[in-house]
Amino acid sequence: MSLGADVRRLVSAYEPRSEREHAEKADFLAFFADDHGPVAREDGPDHATASALVFDPSLTRTLLVFHGKGRFWVQPGGHLEPGDASIADAALREMQEETGVAGSVPASFAYDLDHHALSAAFGRCSSHLDIGVAVVVEPGSPLLVSAESEDVRWWPIDALPAEVPDGFAGRVERLRGRLRG
Question: What is the pLDDT of residues 125-160, one digit of tens each?
């Protein structure tokens, strides 16, 4: 299955739980109505990305990176690459590259959709259609700071840093709710 087909499959199967999530799904469907949606950076200024919203087993902490370009704390993630077999694989690759932490996701995994605009600091990218995959890992692994980040740290979900993007805390809560069932 191509990455475009995987994105379309995930977007089509996404089960919204609120009006906001219904609107997010409709927005994604406009970009991914078929298997040829914008999955690569070269596909235009608005394209898919994959991220890993990383939780500890108690679902009380999340692993964040301080993004160098964005100047904010955020989940590890980024552009899809030709070698990625799926969105889940891309999210896991990004997580390992940006934090040093390895993980896996079950066949039926929790995820969300988040279309967000980007500042001029991101060059020709004007927005990312991000599919955030929930990953649960033990917090004992040594952390690695990548070239894209300035810091990597576990944060209590009820005490996230002030420097997170607008709406980020709500995204973490919504995905944590999906993990809880």
Answer: 668 899 999 999 998 889 999 988 899 999 999 999
Residues 68 and 12: their CA atoms lie apart, in Å, by 33
The pTM of the full predicted model, rounded to 2 decimals, is 0.92
- Identity of the residue numbered 147: A
Angle between helices 87-99 and 3-13 (to 10 degrees): 100
SS3 state of residue 157: helix
In Å, how far are 41, 45, 53, 76, 85 from 123, measured between CA atoms?
Answer: 11, 9, 24, 19, 26
pLDDT tens digits along 8-49:
999 999 999 999 999 999 999 999 999 999 998 787 788 899
Residue ranges and CATH numbers for the domains of the chain are 3-180 (3.90.79.10)
**CA–CA gap between residue 169 and residue 140 (Å, rounded):** 24
